[in-house]
Design goal:
alpha+beta; BirA Bifunctional Protein, domain 2; Rossmann fold; 3 domains; five-stranded mixed beta sheet; 28 strands; 28% strand; binds adenosine-5'-triphosphate
Length: 547
């Protein structure tokens, strides 16, 4: 039997509905919710934890375990090896001095003396506006519906009603606050009076903690703001213990912490999050080719897991946007529904870091072009942050050439990718209910590989031996997949609940099943129902996951 669904005419996805589904169905909860929550911290619920694990497992399988290290992959200069690591969150404080995070990992912030709110300097936009013979610069957080915010603020300031919006005379386009000198004529996004914003101040994003019983500076350490440094400091350990030759990629998945000033947009900017990072060590002569290779390979990964190429871009950084260490960086960005039309948010950065990291951990020297010398040098004129002093160079045992490897770093966020998969999957269409009447349904079209539940098993009714057989089918499939058993309510309602959870298959045991050992298998996306033998269910699901 085929009951096809009808796509609703494509309309922009509503972030509020996605957030509400995530809470209702147990994908994501606010951390410490019963105490009012904690900004920038999120908990994954029963469905969310499965989805996130599946995202991480897909990445680990595709990038590390399942990686073909004997052949040359399309676009690659040569075969390469991949290994994994799992390093600590707290590391020797010197790591962060040599990496540059201690001195350079900060944002410039402006505070509002009136509203007591704090904003990132580079994330406030503003526009000059004149009325009643006075010209002011109204501001709003970039990316939101800026113009509406500007107008509301200006009307309030000039004490005008909205029907008099025409009397506001705008001058110039929206401009970043960083372009403005002196804030006397600036109206903060939540202020009623002019000039309440302070000059920008630096704010380090690393969370401090104390190790051991020492309470002074000696015990101060940091929660890692990225997983990458654990890989750099273990580069020699991995080489020596595996005896690999370069090129070699080392991968790590784990928690990172950043005391973000303005955590927002659901999990997109959190203070505690997970990263999936690869540091790829190669010969300097090949590094450009490897940079190209990784950009393409990582872009494809998202597409293979169901992100439409219409919603994904690879954006090359302009020269003035590059981090201090980077020779080239490209971001993979997704059109999140909370972004303004035509704007994208970063999922992953692929950076060509040259030899900056290994060199820093050897010599403790920061990059002179971006870090002022007075930060790098102590009073005695010697580099303040000593490196490890260890030789982290590589000697090729075939050619005997010794060099500092170059590094390509594909650095992805687990939470941002998971959020992108959730947003991409969210769909509303029309599908027939139990009585054949078309109804709107919400369906999460998650790729079967990452779907939290692979199949739900139902007895059609709760009698005549159907629950017993359905439970047997369920327990059997449970050995291979995360499956779900449900015997409550009308079967149509049970289908809808699974559609919202993103379950690719529903398996129903009915009267015929007891006679011929077959079940119906309903496809989430096509709504097609086919009869299959019970013993074939596992292979059908597996095929779908791999397809
Ligand atoms: P942004 O510019 O958005 O702050 P970034 O360029 O600082 O990000 P990277 O340091 O390159 O980010 O980190 C690599 C990846 O880690 C990002 O692409 C993103 O997916 C993830 N990530 C970074 N910061 C956060 C955060 N605060 N919350 C969630 N994920 C994050």
């Amino acid at each position: 039997m085929t009951n096809s669904s009808v796509e609703s005419p494509s309309k922009p996805k509503d972030m509020e509905q996605i957030v509400s589904l995530c809470k209702r169905r147990g994908f994501l909860f606010q951390s410490s919710e019963i105490y009012g929550g904690l900004q920038g911290f999120w908990d994954y619920g029963p469905l969310g934890v499965e989805l996130k694990r599946n995202v991480k497992e897909a990445w680990w399988q595709d990038m590390v375990r399942g990686h073909d290290d004997v052949n040359t992959l399309p676009g690659a200069p040569s075969p390469y090896a991949m290994e994994g690591l799992d390093c600590t969150i707290i590391m020797h404080p010197q790591v962060w001095k040599c990496s540059g995070h201690y001195d350079l990992f900060h944002d410039f912030m402006v505070d509002c003396r009136e509203s007591k709110k704090r904003y990132r300097h580079d994330q406030l936009n503003g526009r000059w506006v004149e009325a009643k013979d006075k010209k002011i610069f109204v501001t709003a957080p970039a990316g939101d519906d800026e113009q509406a915010h500007f107008e509301k603020q200006a009307l309030k300031f000039f004490n005008l009603r909205s029907k008099h919006a025409d009397s506001l005379s705008w001058d110039g386009d929206s401009t970043c606050l960083t372009e403005i000198d002196g804030f006397d004529q600036v109206l903060g996004p939540d202020a009623k009076t002019l000039g309440t914003l302070t000059e920008p101040r630096e704010f380090n994003l690393m969370f401090k903690t104390v190790v051991g019983a020492l309470s002074g500076e000696e015990g101060t350490s940091f929660l890692r703001p990225e997983t990458a440094q654990g890989i750099f400091v273990n580069f020699k350990n991995v080489l020596d213990s595996t005896r690999h030759r370069l090129p070699l990629g080392i991968a790590q998945i784990g928690k990172s912490f950043r005391n973000e000033i303005t955590p927002r947009n659901f999990t997109f900017r959190s203070r505690e999050f997970e990263q999936m990072e690869i540091e790829f060590f190669c010969h300097p002569n090949d590094s450009q080719a490897w940079y190209q290779f990784w950009r393409d390979r990582r872009m494809r990964w998202y597409q293979d897991l169901g992100i439409s190429s219409d919603n994904l871009i690879l954006r090359e950084h302009d020269k003035d946007e590059l981090s201090h260490y980077s020779i080239g960086t490209a971001d993979i960005e997704y059109a999140f529904p909370f972004m303004a039309e035509g704007e994208f948010g970063e999922l992953e950065g692929i950076a060509h870091r040259g030899d900056f990291d290994l060199r820093s951990h050897m010599e403790g020297k920061l990059d002179e072009k971006s870090c002022p010398l007075e930060v790098q040098l102590g009073d005695d004129g010697k580099p303040k942050w000593k490196g490890s002093g260890k030789d982290l160079n590589y000697r090729d045992d075939l050619t005997n050439e010794k060099y500092t490897p170059h590094v390509i770093e594909p650095s992805a966020g687990v939470d941002r990718s998971t959020l992108a998969f959730l947003c991409e999957a969210y769909n509303e269409d029309e599908a027939p209910d139990d009585k054949g009447k078309m109804q709107t349904r919400t369906v999460m079209r998650l790729h079967p590989r990452i779907a939290p539940i692979k199949a739900a098993v139902f007895p059609l009714v709760k009698k005549d031996g159907m629950p017993e057989l359905a439970k047997r089918v369920y327990l059997d499939l449970k050995k291979s997949f995360h499956v779900f058993y449900d015997e409550k309510g009308a079967v149509g309602r049970r289908y809808r609940r699974q559609d919202e959870a993103g379950t690719p298959y529903c398996i129903t045991v009915d009267g015929q099943s007891l006679d011929d050992n077959t079940v119906t298998l309903r496809d989430r996306d096509t709504l097609e129902q086919i009869r299959v033998k019970i013993e074939e269910c596992e292979s059908v699901i597996r095929e779908k996951m791999n397809g």
